[in-house]
Amino acid sequence: MFYIRNNQGPLRAAIYGGVADAVANNNANTDNLGRLIVLPSSFIGDHRHMAQLYQDSMAIVRQYGKPDLFITMTCNPKWETIVNALKPGEIANDRPNLVTRVFVGKLQHLLDELLKKGIFGEVVADIHVIEWQKRGLPHAHILLNLHSDHKPRGLNEYDRMVSVKLPDKDAHPTLFEVVTSCMLHGPCGTINPHCPCMVDGVCSKGYPKAFTKHTTNTTSSYPTYRCRDDGHTFER
Predict the structure, then answer these.
(1) Residue 91 — pLDDT band, cuts 50, 70, 90?
(2) What is the tens place of the pLDDT at every residue in 166-215?
(3) Boundaries of every domain in the chain
(4) Concatenated DSSP letters for 77-105?
(5) CB atoms < 10 A from the CB of 47, how many?
């Protein structure tokens, strides 16, 4: 008996191709060749399963239009829930079971905030996928379609949902710590030309961003979000 999980690769060519050729040429004993097994879409991770999820996602887009919000949640190996459960000498990468359980719990909490409490408005359709980074830490990409009454239609709505500034360290110390430790790019550029983002001497992500007083739309790209020079600085 042989199994075929996809239609590419040397395994398929060597096994299935050889059997097909033997049967077609009628020059082999086909009594003991076994039988073809085609895995259904319910087999998690198979190409049929992935194709079905893709088609379901496209059906949602066809019904509700392009998503309004793209939200990414990344696992933080410094979460207290993870750190407190590690044994002496262990790091988060040593405990994928622990990391996964904590991440799924926090992801579910975020989805509850988005879908049930509607912190950005009423959600009529949602899609999310969980991926693993090269370091073995999971992250989720979430797409949301909002009700027509809650869709962001102007620059003021963008500013209500997206903030590009450092929190006040004295008024919001916890938020300041989270933003400065997890959400700052670099340093790169001339002060760190060997940063992984550097390509031909320039940051491939477009940093540092210029200060701007107002959010503006750009053609076929992300908006340029309001980023004012309010005097709040941070240095690593």
Answers:
(1) very high
(2) 888 889 999 998 888 888 888 888 888 889 899 988 999 888 888 888 99
(3) 2-38, 164-236
(4) TT-HHHHTTPPTT--GGG-HHHHHHHHHH
(5) 14
